[in-house]
């Protein structure tokens, strides 16, 4: 007997969307009552930073002062609070949670997910899911629409063109949601976008991704070890095999911790003679017990992979461990990088894994039913797989000293939009793509029939969200001003330029 619960027929699911309209009319999305939220935005940010590495929080603050858009990227806790304080549709799907125009990008993916007409091995999709959670679909729509306004402002694009881009995003989202509501289920699951190479600014993004190879990452993040270190690791290398939680996966090999870790060299015999550069505070090498703990987490991580992908991971050996500062909102959380080399008979076969600390979604206090996961790395992995057509083959999760981590490839042909190059035309084209991608992600993980019924076929929802986006962009400017005033004058120091 089948244990599957039969879904409601389409007519009843559409009725849910129409009923949601009666509870919250589409025009009601136009405004947001900040006074109803009654919060201290700076206190919300400070609360989100209390468990971070405090020596790195100043870098996060510095990046958030660079522009209003940069502030928006790091201020998810504020918008999550504001959105949760307003009425919502109750039409639930998987949310990206941090939907903004820089959180989409190109990346390398398995062949099954490739889009026709773009460079081999590349796909383009939503690519950041730290805040993912199940919640009302319009939360993502409102955040992405606001980011189009803020990104357009930063690029110097005129008001009319910014509004046109937002309207285009919303129209495409609505139209594609209706399309997905009528697709057979497996066609929706396999739905690809075939026109990527023809949408401005995609050619530039894809060209950048083509150039962003693992060999370039090798050169930018690592350097040659000394001859003495090479001799030391060659004489002391030994294998540690097994699948226990305190060991690396079977097939991995690394130098003796007692000997090699003193030099910070975990290089196995015959591997590339390189290790991570030292560029504090943005990049530093990890040795000793901290490196041991990171490497020990590879065992549990490997068991979160699909068997055929675990098979390929087992063909790599760890070389070195580093700590890397990345992004804006993520600064201050633990973020490790592991350099590995393949064991086949080739000159160089590097692989870089990012082991990124994950904490509860900023929406979790307001959406208590949004996630049933007890591990935040698992939450992010499942949310990403739910929304993406195809995901990183090495996407998984692990635990280090009681903290949750997501594991994925680092910089494997990754590239995203450059706001400094945006024009009115490229913002419009990009908005078109955003509408289709978010509609696909929400349709895959939610009920496109109910959402389409709520949206309807006219522009009422579109017009309301455009008004919201403009108003919330202005409100974000005010939050940004408050944030800058809250910071103590910084002592002169080296700028924390981004490197990943």
Structural commentary:
With 500 residues, the protein is an alpha+beta fold. The chain folds into two domains: 10-211 and 415-486, no CATH class; 214-409, no CATH class. It has helices spanning 10-23, 34-37, 41-49, 54-64, 68-74, 76-84, 137-154, 159-182, 185-189, 202-211, 214-221, 227-236, 257-263, 288-296, 298-302, 307-313, 376-387, 424-445, 448-455, 460-486, and strands at residues 92-95, 104-108, 122-126, 133-136, 222-224, 237-238, 254-255, 274-276, 283-285, 316-324, 335-342, 350-357, 396-400, 403-409, 415-416. The strands form five sheets. The protein has a six-stranded antiparallel β-sheet, with helices on both faces. The N and C termini lie far apart (51 Å).
Q: What order do the helices and strands come in, and which of them pair?
A:
Blueprint: H1 10-23, H2 34-37, H3 41-49, H4 54-64, H5 68-74, H6 76-84, E1 92-95, E2 104-108, E3 122-126, E4 133-136, H7 137-154, H8 159-182, H9 185-189, H10 202-211, H11 214-221, E5 222-224, H12 227-236, E6 237-238, E7 254-255, H13 257-263, E8 274-276, E9 283-285, H14 288-296, H15 298-302, H16 307-313, E10 316-324, E11 335-342, E12 350-357, H17 376-387, E13 396-400, E14 403-409, E15 415-416, H18 424-445, H19 448-455, H20 460-486
Antiparallel strand pairs: 1-4, 2-3, 2-15, 5-8, 6-7, 9-10, 10-11, 11-12, 12-14, 13-14
Helix pairs in contact: 1-19, 7-8, 7-18, 7-20, 8-18, 8-19, 8-20, 13-14
């Amino acid at each position: 007997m089948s244990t599957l619960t039969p879904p409601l027929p389409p007519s009843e699911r559409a009725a849910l969307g129409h009923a949601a309209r009666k509870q919250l009319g589409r025009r009601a999305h136009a405004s947001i009552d900040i006074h109803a939220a009654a919060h201290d935005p700076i206190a919300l940010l400070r609360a989100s930073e209390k468990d971070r590495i405090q020596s790195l929080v100043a870098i996060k603050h510095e990046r958030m002062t660079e522009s209003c858009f940069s502030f928006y990227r790091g201020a998810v806790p504020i918008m999550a609070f504001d959105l949760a304080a307003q009425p919502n549709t109750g039409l639930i799907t998987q949310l990206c949670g941090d939907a903004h125009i820089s959180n989409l990008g190109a990346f390398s993916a398995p062949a099954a997910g490739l889009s026709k007409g773009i460079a081999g091995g590349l796909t383009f999709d939503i690519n950041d899911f730290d805040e993912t959670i199940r919640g009302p679909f319009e939360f993502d729509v409102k955040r992405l629409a606001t980011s189009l306004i803020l990104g357009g402002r930063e690029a110097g694009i005129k008001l009319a063109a910014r509004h046109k881009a937002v309207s285009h995003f919303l129209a495409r989202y609505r139209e594609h949601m209706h399309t997905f509501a009528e697709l057979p289920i497996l066609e929706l699951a396999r739905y690809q976008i075939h026109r990527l190479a023809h949408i401005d600014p995609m050619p530039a993004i894809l060209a950048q991704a083509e150039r962003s190879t693992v060999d370039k990452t090798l050169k930018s993040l690592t350097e040659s070890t000394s001859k003495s270190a090479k001799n030391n690791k060659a004489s002391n290398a030994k294998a540690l095999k097994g699948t226990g939680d305190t060991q690396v996966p079977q097939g991995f090999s690394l130098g003796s911790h007692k000997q090699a870790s003193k030099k910070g060299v975990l290089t196995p015999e015959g591997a590339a003679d390189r290790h991570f550069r030292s560029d504090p505070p943005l990049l530093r090498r990890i040795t000793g017990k901290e490196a041991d703990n990171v490497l020990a987490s590879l065992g549990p991580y490997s068991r979160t992979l699909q068997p055929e992908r675990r098979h390929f991971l087992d063909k790599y050996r760890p070389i070195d461990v580093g700590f890397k500062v990345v992004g804006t909102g993520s600064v201050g959380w633990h973020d490790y990088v592991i350099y590995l080399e393949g064991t086949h008979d080739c000159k160089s076969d590097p692989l870089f894994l990012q082991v990124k600390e994950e904490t509860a979604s900023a929406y979790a206090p307001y959406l208590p039913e949004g996630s049933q996961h007890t591990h935040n790395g698992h939450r992010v992995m499942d949310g990403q797989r739910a929304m993406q057509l195809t995901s990183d083959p090495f996407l998984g999760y692990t635990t280090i000293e009681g903290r949750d981590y997501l594991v994925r490839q680092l910089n494997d042909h990754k590239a995203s939009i450059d706001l400094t190059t945006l024009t009115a035309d490229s913002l419009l084209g990009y908005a078109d793509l955003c509408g289709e991608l978010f509609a696909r992600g929400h349709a895959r993980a939610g009920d496109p029939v109910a959402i389409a019924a709520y949206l309807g076929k006219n522009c009422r929802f579109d017009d309301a969200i455009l008004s919201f986006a403009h108003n919330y962009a202005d409100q974000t400017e005010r939050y940004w001003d408050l944030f800058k005033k809250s910071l103590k004058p910084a002592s002169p120091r080296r700028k924390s330029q981004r490197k990943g």
